[in-house]
Design brief:
The complex is a heterotrimer of chains A (420), B (320) and C (327). Chain A has 420 residues and is α+β, with helices and mostly antiparallel strands. In chain A, 27% of the residues lie in helices and 24% in strands. Chain A is globular. Chain C is built from 13 helices and 7 strands. Chain C has a 5-stranded parallel sheet. A two-stranded antiparallel ribbon of chain C has the order 6-7. In chain C, a hairpin with a 2-residue loop joins strand 6 and strand 7. Chain C starts with a helix and ends in a 6-residue tail after the last helix. Classes of the chains: A alpha+beta (420), B alpha/beta (320), C alpha/beta (327).
């Protein structure tokens, strides 16, 4: 039986308390009387002992302030109960910019994000009953993308039957559509699984961050020429270098000038990262023919990579994701996000991309457009890449962002600057 | 059809077989006066030659039955309480079960061993211990237990007509259990299970008193879970087909057996199901058994032995 | 009861045959040509011959395991070659090779032999009870060694036999030894037959080296049983010339049995004693005796040939599994 642990009311007039520090790890077993946490009232800090023995699930992270008698943690008696609590944990608290989250939580009954399900397909074992495995085999369903509702998140028969209906296992799509009076439906797609996760995160991002977007166009005519010289040497280089690789390199250049753009707001702290891990938004198939989904695998530590290295690593990452071989590690710890619609969107398209929280910055190139521009007083035709970028105004202000954008723009227009 | 108690159904089986075949006889201790109703009054009808009271000596008593069986007679040996078979274990298990095989099939040993077994009546360990698991383990012995008067009459008749040693104890808690029993001659062959209640969420394989308990639990859970209750009736030979057909429907198995958890027949069936029907299982197999201890005394039996609460908890666990 | 000349010849012939078989078995076990054990019968063959010879074909006999009961077996009219085939693992063995040396010939009244010493006291009650029920005046002889009377079952068996007045003869072949331990420390009285007193059972002690003396006692006991007078306890004082079984040292308690003891024992060789008597009483002349030996030797050769030419039993696992239960 779980037992709630509340923020204690320690002083007469105490209304709020701050969790200064937990003396236990998440999920740790603690004996009654052992040191549990340090709490700060308006005036003074207290060390609190555990009132029970049991496994302790932390709800309120260190540094947070909550009203007195709010539940800040839960005691449970068994590891099974602990696992089911861990799966249902609310608040993104310690997530640091990964689209994935939930690495290895036993009770991942709820798919916290798109990539949880993808992650479960590798690294961690998929738990499924023998019957469910056979049913999935017989029906050509991918267990990796089916949510398990049995004990310990085990996939059982009812999950396979449900997946058949909802197309979770990437089987044939939606429930047949209905005709309601004069309103003919094409399909009905349940808001669940990955789609629901995406929806939740989008709303959360828009409601949480003070985000706004800026637009500019960069002349990539020269950059395209540089790229051409790389492509001519495809065999030597081992890859046909993509435009995205150059864009990432340019982003690195800009980040180095304005490091705070490569950060996450975590609790009460802005964590500025040394590593530049680029989350690369990828469009993925949906449940059926009408919908789609989205994952953001992470290309790690590009700060020291050359363009070719970036391109190779990026393509390997994307392939892993496409083949369902992405690891949990591939899906987490992004510090800045790249979300390109180039090639798909209309030329010159501008947009207001939604931040991939907790990242502070997102760069959103779209399809380049040839247009007349003035250079050295003359009107010439140049290829312009539209960049729509979004930033979190809680963390960084217009001036530094503009410096960042200028640096990015300069690098794209003058590729030699990427050599710096 | 009329209602008989379990022991009266057994008595009817005895009488019909005693009438049918003059080689059949019953031996035991104090059976002329009768300890249990099923031998009371029989001596008047069949005489002391066929209702044989022996001295208080299990080896001698069972030896009489063994030797007579080798000589073509068909003895029914009433040990009174199951544990007393262990007094003469070498004879019952080794010399009896193994005889046909070792001696090249020259002579079989057609004999029936019965006794009262089972906890819950506060009769203390020595009068309550289960024995079917011990004899299930031995090659050459057939083992069965009825859960209703109807099953009892048909199964005892089958046992008496079987050319092999058959250990067929009955549960003391079912002694006065009433049920409809046909008056005519009928056989329930050993090795045929009975689906006592149909369901679709979980198969509960339960024998003897635990079958009755499981049916009560199934009734209680109606609406919440659809519980199928399968009574194996015999342990050896075991009707695996009926069990597997049930699992094809339900995909979940709870085995209830009032015998020690270690090495009981429940474990063998669980292992066989995993071997033979792995892909049918949607949940782990759960066994509800007697804990690995002697039958405790005083008032402890009801909560130590398998009971409806434990059966219900097991059902909930596998259906989670 | 006096024996007729025919009876004496039959007894003598069976004794010679038993001796030949014993020697053959000893030879075979010491040359690795038998499966499992051999418990040599040398010196102890007379009581088994007497009991087996005096029984009718229809009677039931549990022979003592000494010499693998061959003395009793052949005297009861059983063809030893089927036993030898069994003991050499052949298909043609009496138990299809499944039991090695724990054989049986139920159609000829021998239901089982067993490694569980004293086990046979239990079913012996049942055999004798069946004899009584069958109404054909059958009797049963339960032969066993001195050590077997340590078993509680022996008591139950005697109790039942007397309670129910069963036609069961308790035939104790007392050679004074279990394996190594000696009866003087393992049984509180000199005569094991003193047990019979406790049940009101008549008892006789007889010289187990004298096949004719044993036969006389056997006939008397059989007569009592056949005429409904109940059990008799017969104790044959006999000797075991060799070790308990080949491969086990020949110790008494824990020291080797002495040369002197062996010399003493061999002075009471049953075959010598019987030969002297048949010659002395003119029952057989030397030529006849020689012929008996010749035929015995042929019988043994024939048994060996039969066993050797028979194929080894190699049933499949399925075949064996199908043979556990009677249809």
């Amino acid at each position: 039986m779980p037992t709630d642990f509340l923020m204690p009311k320690l002083a007469m007039a105490m209304n709020e308390g701050t969790v200064i520090e937990w003396a236990v790890e998440q999920g740790q077993y603690i004996e009654k009387g052992g040191a549990l946490l340090t709490v700060e009232t308006e005036k003074v800090a207290y060390d609190i002992e555990a009132p029970n023995s049991g496994y302790f699930h932390i709800l309120t992270p260190a540094g947070e302030t909550v009203p007195v008698e709010a539940t800040i943690g839960i005691f449970v008696e068994s590891e099974e109960e602990l696992a089911s609590l861990a799966g249902g944990s609310p608040a993104p608290a310690a997530n640091n910019g990964d689209a994935a989250a939930n690495n290895g939580d036993a009770g991942s009954a709820q798919p916290e994000s798109a990539a949880t399900i993808a992650a479960a397909s590798t690294g961690g074992r998929i738990i499924a009953s023998p019957l469910a495995k056979k049913m999935a085999r017989d029906r050509g369903l991918n267990l990796a993308t089916i949510e398990g509702t049995g004990p310990n998140g085990r996939i059982v028969k009812r999950d396979i039957l449900r997946a058949e209906q909802t197309g979770e296992g990437r089987a044939q799509a939606a429930v047949p559509a209905a005709a309601v009076g004069g309103l003919q439906e094409k399909a009905r797609i349940p808001m669940q699984g990955i789609r629901k996760t995406i929806a939740n995160r989008m709303v959360e991002s828009l409601q949480t961050a003070a985000q706004l977007s800026g637009f500019f166009e960069s002349d990539i005519t020269d950059l395209m020429a540089v790229r051409k010289t790389f492509i001519e040497r495809e065999e030597q280089l081992g890859t046909k270098v993509s435009m995205n690789a150059f864009i990432i390199k340019a982003i690195v250049t800009a980040v180095k000038q304005v490091p705070i753009t490569n950060s996450s707001l975590i609790g009460d702290e802005i964590v500025i990262y040394d590593s530049i891990n680029v989350g690369i938004a990828m469009a993925m198939p949906g449940q059926g023919e009408y919908d789609s989904s989205l994952v953001v695998p992470v290309l790690k530590n590009v700060q020291n990579m050359g363009v070719v290295e970036i391109d190779i690593a990026m393509k390997e990452l994307i392939n892993r994701v496409r083949n369902g071989e992405a690891t949990a590690d591939d899906m987490k710890d992004a510090t800045i996000t790249l979300s390109s619609t180039a090639g798909i969107s209309p030329p010159g398209c501008k947009s207001t991309p939604v931040l991939n929280l907790p990242n502070t910055t997102l760069i959103g190139p779209s399809t380049p457009i040839e247009k007349p521009v003035v250079r050295n007083g003359e009107i010439v035709a140049r290829t312009m890449m539209p960049i729509s970028m979004t930033f979190d105004h809680r963390v960084v202000d217009g001036a530094p962002v503009s410096v960042f954008n200028r640096a990015l723009h300069d690098a794209l227009e003058n590729p030699a600057l990427m050599l710096a | 059809m009329r209602e008989l108690t379990l022991v009266d159904a057994i008595k009817e089986a005895f009488c019909e077989e005693l009438d049918r075949d003059e080689k059949v006889f019953i031996c035991g201790q104090d059976i002329r006066g009768g300890i249990f109703p099923y031998t009371m009054g029989l001596v008047d009808q069949y005489g002391e030659d066929r209702i044989v009271d022996t001295a208080l000596a299990e080896s001698g008593m069972f030896g009489l039955a063994m030797g007579a069986a080798m000589e073509g007679y068909r003895p029914i040996v009433d040990f009174m309480f199951g544990g007393f078979t262990y007094h003469t274990f070498s004879e019952v298990s080794v010399a009896t079960g193994q005889h046909y095989f070792l001696h090249g099939g020259q002579r079989s040993m057609p004999l029936v061993i019965t006794a009262g077994v089972g906890a819950g009546m506060r009769l203390a360990n020595d009068h309550a211990m289960a024995i079917h698991g011990t004899f299930f383990h031995q090659p050459g012995i057939k083992v069965a237990m009825p859960s209703t008067p109807y099953d009892a009459k048909g199964m005892f008749k089958a046992a008496i007509r079987d050319n092999n040693p058959v250990v067929i104890p009955w549960h003391l808690g079912l002694m006065m259990e009433r049920g409809l029993v046909p008056e005519e001659d009928y056989i329930i062959p050993l090795g045929v299970a009975d689906v006592k209640r149909e369901g679709s969420d979980v198969t509960v394989l339960a024998n003897s008193l635990q079958c009755k308990n499981s049916l009560a639990v199934a009734e209680k859970l109606e609406g919440e879970f659809s519980v199928e209750v399968v009574d194996p009736r015999s342990f050896e030979p075991f009707d695996m087909d009926t069990l597997l057909r049930s699992l094809e429907k339900t995909n979940r198995l709870v085995i209830v057996d009032e015998d020690w958890e270690k090495g009981g027949y429940a474990s063998t069936i669980a292992a066989r199901v995993v071997e033979e029907a792995f892909d049918l299982l949607d949940a782990p197999i759960k066994r509800v058994t007697f804990p690995n201890m002697p039958v405790p005394g005083g008032y402890m039996e009801p909560y130590i032995m398998p009971n409806p609460d434990k059966i219900e908890a097991a059902i909930r666990e596998v259906c989670a | 009861m006096n024996l007729s000349k025919e009876q004496m010849i039959t007894l003598y012939t069976n004794l010679v045959r038993a001796d030949h078989f014993d020697q053959m078995m000893y030879r075979r076990i010491t040359t690795g040509q038998l499966v499992g054990f051999y418990h040599p019968g040398e010196g102890a063959i007379a009581p088994g011959v007497a009991a087996g010879t005096c029984l009718n074909e229809d009677d039931i006999f549990q022979p003592h395991h000494r010499g693998h009961a061959i003395p009793g077996m052949l005297s009861k009219g059983i063809d030893v070659k089927y036993y030898l085939a069994e003991h050499t693992g052949k298909e043609t063995g009496c138990c299809k090779g499944r039991s090695s040396f724990h054989w049986s010939f139920p159609d000829q009244g021998v239901h089982l032999t067993t490694g569980f010493i004293g086990l046979t006291f239990s079913p012996a009650v049942g055999w004798a009870w069946a004899c009584k029920r069958n109404g054909r005046n059958q009797v049963a002889i339960l032969a066993s060694g001195d050590g077997s009377y340590g078993q509680g079952r022996a008591h139950e068996s005697m109790l039942f036999a007397m309670n129910m007045k069963l036609p069961l003869i308790f035939w104790c072949e007392n050679n004074g030894m279990a394996i190594h331990s000696t009866m003087d420390e393992m049984h509180p009285t000199e005569d094991i037959s003193s047990l019979a007193q406790g049940y009101g059972m008549p008892a006789t002690v007889v010289d187990g080296q004298d096949v004719f003396a044993c036969a006389e006692v056997a006939l008397a006991a059989i007569e009592r049983a056949r005429t409904g007078k109940g059990p008799t306890f017969v104790e044959c004082k006999t000797l075991r010339f060799k070790e308990h079984d080949v491969g086990t040292p020949d110790l008494a308690r824990y020291t080797p049995r002495s040369e002197e003891l062996h010399e003493e024992m061999r002075k009471r060789d049953p075959l010598v004693i019987a030969t002297e008597r048949v010659l002395a009483e003119g029952v057989l002349d030397q030529a006849a005796i020689d012929q008996i030996h010749e035929r015995a030797a042929e019988e043994v050769s024939e048994a060996e040939r039969f066993a050797e030419e028979s194929p080894i039993a190699t049933p499949t696992e399925e075949e064996l599994l199908a043979a556990v239960y009677a249809p």
